[in-house]
Specification:
Layout: H1 3-17, E1 22-28, H2 29-32, E2 43-45, E3 50-57, E4 64-70, E5 74-81, E6 92-98, E7 116-120, H3 130-133, E8 150-157, E9 165-174, H4 180-199
Amino acid sequence: MKLQSLRAVSLLLTCAFAPIAGAATVWNEDTDGDLSDNGLVPNFLTVVNGSNTVYGTTGNSDNDNFSFTVAEGSVFTGLVLQDGTTVAGDLSFIGMQAGAAFTLPIPLTSAVGMLGWTHYDPTLIGIDLLPSMAVPRFGSSGFSTPLPSGSYSLHVQDTGGGLPKYGFDIQISSVPEPGAGVLALAGMLALAAGVVARRR
């Protein structure tokens, strides 16, 4: 197969398997108002495949609670800390429960009932926090990534005083249908073979 034909095959395969992803800010407290202080009645955020950013401020009694639902055919793949995140002291806290509400009493005294939790600070900007949250400790159940379709609730808190800011990118990806990749590959190879045949 000639070099030009190999390049054509590579381009076709790249296009076939390139993920379709969007990017959106789903909540920004500067424009959308304060997120709920009540874990039993969190703000519901609509997320789609791709990047879904949340920006807020927490501190002292101002804890933030929000939930979202990962649609069937998609998975929750990452929770990446964003630029502009600050902390009042040494670190801030984020915890996650399965379901549409964060039901643990605030202030937290135990991680029992949580899927996972972690602390974060500005040194972790650009880092996916899910792997750290997934480790079971102090009563949290732990989990494997990616997380399947379903509802999740997040609780953000910093008790160090002040009004530290945070940003999280909730990353959602589609799950390819079984066999879809094989069919696409076969189709692309057939198309590439036709290109080669015509050039000969």
